[in-house]
Every structure is written in structure tokens, then in C-alpha cells.
Specification:
2 copies of one chain form a homodimer. Chain A is built from 15 helices and 14 strands. Chain A is of the alpha/beta class and 420 residues long. Chain A has a 6-stranded mixed beta sheet, with helices on both faces. In chain A, helix 4 crosses helix 5 and helix 10 packs across helix 12. The mean pLDDT of chain A is 95. The interface between A and B is large, with 87 and 87 residues. Strand 8 of chain A pairs parallel with strand 14 of chain B, so a sheet runs across the interface. Chains A, B: Belongs to the threonine synthase family.
Chain lengths: 420, 420
């Protein structure tokens, strides 16, 4: 594989490709380092090689940290797991028109096995976990990751332990427990859950916590969102991406995906402006951005966007740096704006997103209203999860007619109502 | 296009390709007739042409009743609508093992834009509606169709009216209203709703009811499930398909898809045995099958599988004929078996299905237990909709641990619990 070692993001110390996530020298986060020289410099050949791959993230295996990536999906779910990625990128002209923008695309990651982008990161973490000999999958989750880990473990035939905040939406609890995982509700918020999992991870040698000891592999999965966007735009870069921020990992790894491919010559031109989106009720990165700070002050989350409710975001400083260097920014929106964002996206595109996508759509609307987006910009809105997972957020946002099964009642109630 | 006319299934009377669904001579249902001779007889060339198409149902345009099928999806959702189809076919060895079967595949239609197979039929009905000049989409729905019509109308920028039984699951109501459709709750069951829509359809000339006046076009969408299965199995036929029955349309059209391609030489061999699956609480077709009857006696539905709750199934007689002629059958399962079916599929494949898929999985289990399936058979289980839509069905089917965020509590509660 082209991954060569783990490298500390802070002090550049190097480690073998094991289940490690923290630098022993400086406690900085570890990332995957690559040597892509074996891929050669024939860009056309490399593109054809990617296009000949399966319709899922394994088409990007050359850029992922696995010894033996699974073959085409479908052959045997117990070997290859659930097929993640290759989700639609849809041009949303009616959304653009409503916001007074030129060109808006929606990357719709609800088209994943458990309907969020977490299937990407879990696919990679779980495959690497098996390569490294782990026999049990585990995670700390705000909800979507719980669904993804429980489902992937079921597909692979591995036992799993999923730790969630006890107050998680019931939808995400039901959609996790159904897979037969060991579901652990922890009395506390996500940051409490995460601390507990870090401790458990140190004590259970055969457990692969996808977002703790497997984190460097896990995080690389988010790069595939960028690869797909670029491939779907005909091997070109967008001008701007609007992406939700929880830990900051997705936001920074999407940018890493674009820059990796640009360095390899697969893409040309300026890197996209990166705009981060947070819920006001949990906006440590947006607050630090506005204050001009380099680090985030932890907060206690209070928002309907629970999948973004990380009060102490691990990659906050890197997200801040990226937003500033790329010419983007980081904004936050209220819960009412989130609900309006969900409705706006649904009405103009037919895509129903969870609260996190409401955050992203509302942030795009805010950028548009502020005049931050040029008329000729090509903007990609990254929708990370499905509206079916946070149905409570749309309860009461629309009205229905109630009639008896008679044509007269239909005319009197519905048609009269529609004409008002 | 290769569609030539509408043809009465009963008396073979012919009509132009308009918005008609019932024969004026004998009141039989109208179907699409084709002349595929323009496709030629070079099977390899035809396969390559299909494979070069987009990753959605429009790759099968040569076999669908549209003048001008949309191009590759993604270009502009307001023109092409939501991208349906090309859902995964996954080999489920752990499910097969649990049931003592040889080779089981799951066709996972939860990977559609609104997470059910209805996106296929709506895609075709709505495109044809636009070709015929309609300006409004409408439907009578048991839930999944409501989601699909409201979403597709939003994507295409068309107004829509969705008629549902007032007692539908709240998940499906919320996941429909969010798109800004006119949502009409009718006090009655699906058959009452359907009768009302038939009446409204006769009175509103600019409304395309996808499953009333557009029904012949709509129904053709289900053939694409068969096309995909055959293509994904390397241009071969499965030995047996297990498919849910509501109106009977999906069941019969999947068989039509296989036989059409066999006649064209795209596939060889025996047609699959077709097994229909119903919920005992709404099993008019299974009851008629068991009684050796040719027609179904209408019933009042009482089952958790509301998406299959059609008490007076329009295609019941054709489903009976198909089950008998293909060497399959039609079975029914209890609500408890449905819940167990949902859990079985989730635990062994990582696929979370709604109640309809629980019906199908439980029926497969019943066939296996009865010894109806040969050891060397290749069986395809058709999963039509997503578990997130009927979460109530899994509430109470599993237990969770509840702990404080401390390692001691984790060890005492979770690990002790897991060991019991």
C-alpha cells in the first residue's frame, strides 16, 4: 500500500502503521503518511484505474491505508462489509435560485448504507482493524457512528460495543440496537462518552475503537468525499465547500483529499474555500474563528443538532487554520435556522437531511445573504446524514389536511385550503 | 422509444401511450407493449450499451416507456429528478448459514433516494407525466410512495398532492410533509384512499396520479429491480426470488423484467421461481393461493406492515398465476415473525429493513424451515424499504446497558452483563 507510517501532526515523529493515535513525544494526533511514487505520473492512466474500480470507496484504495482493500462489493458482505460511498452529487438549481447563487451542488451522503458519511470512515477503520487482528469493533458516538459501527459489525460478523450519550434521539438508538450490538447508554454528553471510551480502549487489547485507537485510519475515510466530488465534477475542483464541523475531522480531511490529488496532478487549480458550519448551541470552533483565536474553548452542547454536539473538538485548531488559509470561514446557526435549513433543502432538491444538514444548508443561506459568495462560484454543500434520523426536528413545521374519503370533502377542504 | 402502445391485459385492446389505465372495452388493466426489434440481436453490444449507461435506472431506458429519458443524473435535479436504482445486491452468507441455505443474495432497495423501491416507479411515472404535459404530481399511498412522490416533485419543482390513510406511521408523515407537498390525511384505510384518488383523478385533468392514471408507466419501474439483479449476477438468472406483495405489481413486474430480457437473449435459462410474501394481517393473495382460488377476497388490513396493507390488491390474480406457473408460492407471516425477520436480517447482514422487509425475510425463513428451497439454489431476497421508516416495529426488541461515565461502572455493568 502507499501508506508508509503514522506521523505526528505536531512534531512529525513517526510510528509504524499500528493501532495508535497519539504521539508519545508530544501528545499530538497521528496521521497517515503516504508515498504515492509507485502510482507513477501518468495522470490519465491513474484516472482510468480509478474509474475502472467498484462503485464504492474501494475505487480509491490507492489513497487509503489498507494492505488489502476489499474487492468489488456484493460478493460477500461477511468479507467486504457494507458498500459505502459513491453517493450522488446533484446540481441544485432551484436551491441556488432561492439563495441568489450561481451554481450549487449537493453531495448527498444520505445515500450510504446507514445513511450518513460515517459508513465511509467505519468501512476503513473496520477493514484495518481486521488487518491488525482485532476481533471486536467499538465506538463513542453522537448517533450516526453508532448506526454505522453496529451495521458494519453485523455485516462483517464481528461483535461490537457502541457507547452513546443516554439522551440521544430515540431514532438513532433503535437504528443501532436492531443490529444486535452491545449498546451502552452513558449518562453524560458526547465528551463524557469519549473520555470513557479512551479509558476502555486502553484496557481492552482486542477492541478496535474506530474513533479512538483506530482514529488515524478512520479519519482517512473522509477524504473519499473530496475524491468523489472531484471525480463527479469531471476531475475539477469546486470553488467552495460548505461542510459541518463536529470534531473538525471531516472538514479538514475533505481539504486533505483535494490537496493530495492536486499534488499528484489529478486535479489542477486553486484549492476550494472551506466554510465550516456549526450549530450555535455547540459552536466552539465558530466562536474561536470569530474571536480570532487559534484554539477552541470547550462548551457544553445545547442544540438539536446532536450529531454535531462535540463540545471539545479534537481537530478544532486545524479547522480554524484551514478556514483562514483557504479564504473560507466558520459560522454558526440557531436551532430555528437549522429547521428552516432542513425545509429549504427538502423543498428545493427533494433531499431530506438530518439536523447536521440543516446546519450546513442554513450556513450556506447565511453566506449567500451576507454576499460572501461570488456569482460565478461553484459551491458544494456537503449533506452528511438523513432526515429520517432526526424526525423530531421537522415535527410541527408543516400542516396536513384531514378529510373523509369523499370527493366533496376533498374539494371543500383541500382545494379551498390550497387556494387560500 | 421501444414502447409502442397500451394494451389491455385481459382483451388485448390497444390504446395510444396516453394517461390511461383501464380498458374501455372490458375494464381490464392496461400495460405497456413494446417492439424491441430496433435494438438488434447483438446481445454483447446491447449489454455494453447498458453498462455504459448511468449508475441509475436510466441505464435501462431502452426497456422503459419514455420518449426522452433523462441523461446522467447529477447534472440538474430540476430536470432529471432524483437518481433511483442501481442499488446493491449483496451476498448474505451469514443469513444463508443461519437458515441452512446455500446461496442467498439481498437486493437492498433501501439505497434509493427516499429509501424504498418506490423511487423507481415514481421516477418513470413523473418523467412520463411531464412528457404528457401534466403539471402536478399526486398519489394514493401507504407511506413509501408518499415519501417518493413528495421528494421527486420537490426535485423536479412540481406541486404535489399526497393522499395517505390518516393512521399512517408518523415517521412516514413527517418524511413526506417536509418536502412541502400538499399532504392529505384521509380517514380510512388504503383502499378508501385509493378509491378517492381514482375519483379525484377523473376530475383534475392536469394532475398525474402516479399510481392511478399513470399506472401503466409507473408499474414498469419495478422491472428495473429484475434488470439490476440479472446484471449484478453477471447476466444470469437467480433460481428463486422472494418478494413482498401489496398490490402484486412489484411481484409480477420483476418476473416480467426477467422474461423480457430472456426473450431478447440477454439472459438464458429457466425463469426464477417467484415466492410472494404477505403479512398475515393483510394476506388476501396468500389466502387465495392456499385455497387454490384464482381471485382474491378483499380483507380489512390489520398488520404492522402498513406498506403492504392493501386489502383489495389490483394485481392479485396475476400474482397467483405467476406463483403457480413459476413453481414458487405465496406465504404469510405474523407480526411477531415480521419483527423477528427484521432482527434476523439486521444481525446477519447489517441491513435494517422496514416491516415489509421483515415480511420477506420471515417468509424466506419459513420456506427454508419447510425445506422448500434446494441446497444448490441461488435465492434473491428483495428488500423494498428502510427500517428508519417503521422504527416502532423494533422498539422493545433489544436491551441496552445504562451506565455512568466511569470505567468501574462499565466493567461492573457491561462486561458482567455480556458474560451472563
Amino acid at each position: 500500500m502507499s501508506a508508509t507510517e503514522l506521523k505526528c501532526r505536531e512534531c512529525a515523529a513517526r510510528y509504524p502503521l499500528e493501532a495508535r493515535y497519539v504521539c508519545e513525544q508530544c501528545f499530538g494526533p497521528l496521521e497517515i503518511a503516504y508515498d504515492h511514487s509507485a502510482l507513477g505520473d501518468d495522470v490519465s492512466a491513474l484516472r482510468r484505474r480509478i474509474q475502472a474500480g467498484p462503485q464504492n470507496i474501494w475505487r480509491y484504495s490507492d489513497f487509503l491505508p489498507l494492505d488489502a482493500p476489499p474487492g468489488p462489493s456484493g460478493r460477500n458482505s461477511s468479507r467486504v462489509g457494507l458498500p459505502a460511498g459513491c453517493t450522488p452529487l446533484i446540481r441544485a438549481d432551484r436551491l441556488a435560485e432561492r439563495l441568489g447563487l450561481g451554481e450549487v451542488w449537493v453531495k448527498n451522503d444520505t445515500h450510504n448504507p446507514t445513511h450518513s458519511f460515517k459508513d465511509r470512515v467505519v468501512a476503513i477503520a473496520s477493514q484495518r482493524a481486521r488487518e491488525l487482528g482485532f476481533d471486536t469493533l467499538a465506538c463513542a458516538s453522537t448517533g450516526n457512528l453508532a448506526n454505522a459501527v453496529a451495521a458494519q459489525a453485523a455485516a462483517l460478523g464481528m461483535p461490537s460495543y457502541v457507547f452513546i450519550p443516554a439522551d440521544l434521539e430515540e431514532q438513532k438508538i433503535l437504528a443501532t440496537g436492531v443490529y444486535g450490538t452491545h449498546l451502552v447508554k452513558v449518562a453524560g454528553n458526547y465528551d463524557d462518552v469519549n473520555r470513557l471510551c479512551t479509558e476502555v480502549s486502553g484496557e481492552r487489547e482486542n477492541w478496535a475503537f474506530v474513533n479512538v485507537n483506530m482514529r488515524p485510519y478512520y479519519a482517512e475515510g473522509s477524504k473519499t468525499v473530496a475524491y468523489e466530488i472531484a471525480e463527479q465534477l469531471g476531475w475539477t475542483l469546486p470553488d467552495r465547500c460548505v461542510v459541518p464541523i463536529a470534531s473538525g475531522s471531516l472538514f479538514t480531511k475533505i481539504a486533505k483529499g483535494f490537496s493530495e490529488w492536486t499534488e499528484l496532478g489529478l486535479l489542477d487549480g486553486d484549492q476550494p474555500k472551506m466554510n465550516g458550519a456549526q450549530a450555535l448551541g455547540c459552536s466552539p470552533v465558530a466562536a474561536a474563528y470569530e474571536a480570532g483565536a487559534d484554539v477552541c474553548r470547550p462548551v457544553k452542547p445545547d442544540t438539536i443538532a446532536k450529531s454535531l454536539a462535540i463540545g471539545n473538538p479534537a481537530d478544532g485548531p486545524y479547522a480554524l487554520e484551514l478556514a483562514r488559509e483557504s479564504g473560507g470561514g466558520i459560522d454558526s446557526v440557531t436551532d430555528d435556522e437549522i429547521r428552516a435549513g432542513i425545509r429549504l433543502l427538502a423543498e428545493t432538491t427533494g433531499i431530506f437531511t438530518e439536523t447536521a444538514g440543516g446546519v450546513t444548508t442554513a450556513t450556506l443561506a447565511k453566506l449567500a445573504e451576507r454576499g460572501d459568495i461570488g456569482a460565478d462560484e461553484r459551491v458544494v454543500l456537503v449533506i452528511t446524514g438523513d432526515g429520517l434520523k432526526t424526525l423530531d426536528a421537522v415535527r410541527g413545521t408543516f400542516e396536513a389536511y384531514e378529510i373523509t374519503p369523499s370527493f366533496d370533502d376533498f374539494e371543500a377542504t383541500v382545494e379551498q385550503g390550497a387556494r387560500i
